[in-house]
């Protein structure tokens, strides 16, 4: 982990501070739109609630209103419920390995509480929309950005190759994987970047609470 390690904050000086982003409350329409895209085959977490069950549940106006209110309160109070910080970790074997004597031959799967997972999707979507519309995020990174899928990556790469062929060039690609990227993220830097994006201070405070005191149970 990158926490509590020396960090060169000068790297962030190149990032310009943007105008203040006004965080608008979540609406029922956002919830319905997001959960409709969730695949029912996902395995439930500690709360034993499935996406199909949640899709049925939010048809009740009172239920969806309560979930919307919980989400808005989490943001306004800068607090992520301890219930949502609990998870179940399952370690599975990677197939077709001759030996299973190193950690790399195992794949951990983390199952989260589904209601918290749903709320997290809403928050993630809204942060991304705000960041893109304010031009804070460059559209060069394709993975993980809304409306930019792996299909777009292949189309873009194919376009570059074809353009090279038109110019009688020999084309080649270099691909590499950054091992342990997410576990190596420095959370303090992420909070500073949120401030650079000019989100309201309680958004940064929310994530500072979201990232701590997590628990998991191995089965």
pLDDT under 50 segments (min length 5)?
Answer: none
The fraction of residues in strands falls at 5-15%
Topology order in helix (H) and strand (E) letters: HHHEEHHHHE
The SS-based structural class is mainly alpha
Helix content: 40-55%
The general outline is globular
Q: How many strands, which pairing sense, and closed or not: the largest β-sheet?
A: 3 strands, mixed
Describe the secondary-structure layout:
Blueprint: H1 28-35, H2 51-57, H3 61-76, E1 86-93, E2 106-112, H4 114-133, H5 150-166, H6 187-196, H7 201-210, E3 215-218
Parallel strand pairs: 1-3
Antiparallel strand pairs: 1-2
Helix pairs in contact: 1-4, 6-7
Give an overview in words.
The protein is mainly alpha-helical and 219 residues long. The protein has helices at residues 28-35, 51-57, 61-76, 114-133, 150-166, 187-196, 201-210; strands at 86-93, 106-112, 215-218. It has a domain at 23-100 and 112-139 and 188-218. A 3-stranded mixed β-sheet has the order 2-1-3. Helix 1 (28-35) crosses helix 4 (114-133) and helix 6 (187-196) runs antiparallel to helix 7. The relative contact order is 0.18.
Brief description of this entry?
By secondary structure, the protein is mainly α. It has seven helices and three strands, in the order αααββααααβ. 12% of the residues are buried.
């Amino acid at each position: 982990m990158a926490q509590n390690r020396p960090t060169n904050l000068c790297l962030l000086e190149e990032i310009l501070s943007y105008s203040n982003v006004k965080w608008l409350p979540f609406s029922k329409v956002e919830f319905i739109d997001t959960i409709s895209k969730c695949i029912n085959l996902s395995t439930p977490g500690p709360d034993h609630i499935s996406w199909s069950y949640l899709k049925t549940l939010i048809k009740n106006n009172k239920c969806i209103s309560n979930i919307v209110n919980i989400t808005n309160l989490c943001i306004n109070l800068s607090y992520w419920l301890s219930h949502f910080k609990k998870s179940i970790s399952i370690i599975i074997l990677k197939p077709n390995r001759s030996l299973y004597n190193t950690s790399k031959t195992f794949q951990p799967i983390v199952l989260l509480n589904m209601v918290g997972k749903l709320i997290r999707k809403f928050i993630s979507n809204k942060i991304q929309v705000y960041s893109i519309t304010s031009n804070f995020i460059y559209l060069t990174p394709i993975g993980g950005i809304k409306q930019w899928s792996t299909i777009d990556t292949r189309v873009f790469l194919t376009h570059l190759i074809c353009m090279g062929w038109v110019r009688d060039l020999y084309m080649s690609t270099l691909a590499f994987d950054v091992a342990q990227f997410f576990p190596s993220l420095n959370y303090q830097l992420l909070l500073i970047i949120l401030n650079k994006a000019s989100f309201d201070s309680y958004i940064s405070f929310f994530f500072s609470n979201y990232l701590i005191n997590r628990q998991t149970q191995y089965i």
